[in-house]
Specification:
The protein is of the alpha/beta class and about 300 residues long. Helix content is about 40%, strand content about 20%. It has a six-stranded parallel sheet with strand order 1-4-3-2-5-6, with helices on both faces. A three-stranded antiparallel sheet has the order 7-8-9, covered by helices on one side.
Length: about 300
C-alpha cells in the first residue's frame, strides 16, 4: 500500500492530538480504513529543524501513515538542566509537520503523559554507565519511560531515531528486544550544517562566536577517525591531544573516546572486524554539544 492510496481525509491536513483518547481515535480511524497500513513513528521534543525533517522523510519513504510526537519529556531532564528553557514552538512545529506530509501529530502536555505519583520505573544495567549516561544520571531511564509509553500508545511498525544520539538508539534497541515491542528501530544518519556541526535544537543557545567554534568537535572526531582508519589501534594519545586542542578553543570536555558498539564501554585497543563508536560531548559556553562517528574496521 502506498501513501497515494490512503483516504485523502487522513493525509491532506495533519491531525493534531493533544490527548491519548484523541490519538487512539485517530489511529483507530487509520486502521479501520485499512488494517494493513504501515505506521511509522518519529518521536521528538519539538523545535524541529532539518535533522528532524530528515527523520520524517525516512518515515515517509517506508510508511503509509507517519506519526510525530512533540513532547518535552520532563523525566529525562536533571534538576539543573534546561527543561524550563528548552525551546517550545508548537505552532511552527505543526506547520512544519503538515508541510512534510505528516498524518498525525501527538502533542500532549505533562499531565496527559504522567500521573502526579509514579510507582514504577525502568532501570538500565551498564549501558548507561559511560558516554552521556555518566554525566546525566536518570537521563536514559527517563527516555525509556516515555518511549515505552509512546510505543504502547501508537504501536508503530517502526520508529526513526537520529544517530547523533547513538547511545539512546542502542539503549532503545535493547529495550525493544527485552520488552518484545515488535517495533523496528531505524537509525537515521546525522544531518550537519555546511561546516560540519551536527544539527540540534540546542544549537540555538550558541552565541555567534560559539557557533563559529562549535564545528571543532566534529573536526577532532574526523582527525581521530582518519588516524584509526590509517592503522592506529591504540588511539589514547591522539584522543588526549584532541581534548587539549578543544579545551584551548574554549570547550569543556565531558567525554571524548572510542566505545564498543555493543557494550557502550570505552575501548583502548581496537581490533579488525569490530564496530566502534568514536564519540564526544563537550560544553561550549552553556551549550552541551554531542557528536559521533561510527567506525568499522
Amino acid at each position: 500500500m502506498s501513501k497515494d492510496s490512503v483516504s485523502p481525509d487522513l493525509t491532506e491536513t495533519v491531525s493534531v492530538c493533544k490527548t491519548i483518547d484523541e490519538l487512539r481515535g485517530a489511529l483507530s480511524a487509520v486502521r479501520q480504513h485499512n488494517s494493513d497500513s504501515t505506521i511509522g513513528f518519529v518521536p521528538t521534543m519539538g523545535a524541529l529543524h532539518e535533522g528532524h525533517l530528515s527523520l520524517i522523510d525516512i518515515a515517509q519513504q517506508k510508511a503509509d501513515i507517519v506519526v510525530v510526537s512533540i513532547f518535552v519529556n520532563p523525566t529525562q531532564f536533571g534538576p539543573n538542566e534546561d527543561f524550563q528553557s528548552y525551546p517550545r514552538q508548537l505552532q511552527e512545529d505543526v506547520a512544519a509537520c503538515e508541510k512534510a506530509g505528516v498524518d498525525i501529530v501527538f502533542a500532549p502536555d505533562r499531565d496527559e503523559m504522567y500521573d502526579d505519583t509514579r510507582y514504577l520505573k525502568i532501570e538500565i544495567d551498564t549501558l548507561n554507565v559511560h558516554m552521556c549516561g555518566a554525566s546525566r544520571p536518570g537521563f536514559f531511564e527517563g527516555i525509556l519511560l516515555v518511549v515505552n509509553k509512546l510505543f504502547n500508545l501508537i504501536e508503530p511498525d517502526f520508529a526513526v531515531f537520529g544517530l547523533k544520539d547513538i547511545q539512546q538508539v542502542q539503549i532503545i534497541k535493547q529495550m525493544v528486544r527485552e520488552f518484545n515491542h515488535g517495533v523496528e528501530i531505524v537509525g537515521a544518519p546525522i544531518v550537519r550544517a555546511n561546516d560540519g556541526l551536527a544539527l540540534s535544537s540546542r544549537n540555538a543557545y550558541l552565541s555567534p562566536e560559539e557557533r563559529t567554534t562549535a564545528p571543532s568537535l566534529y573536526r577532532s572526531l574526523q582527525y581521530i577517525e582518519q588516524n584509526i582508519t590509517s592503522g592506529v589501534t591504540e588511539p589514547s594519545l591522539l584522543i588526549e591531544h584532541q581534548k587539549d586542542e578543544l579545551e584551548a578553543k574554549g570547550f569543556k570536555i565531558d567525554y571524548l573516546n572510542v566505545f564498543s558498539d555493543k557494550t557502550l564501554s570505552p575501548v583502548t585497543t581496537l581490533s579488525s572486524g569490530e564496530r566502534y563508536i568514536l564519540a564526544g560531548a563537550a560544553y561550549l559556553g552553556k551549550t552541551r554539544l554531542i557528536d559521533n562517528i561510527l567506525i568499522e574496521l
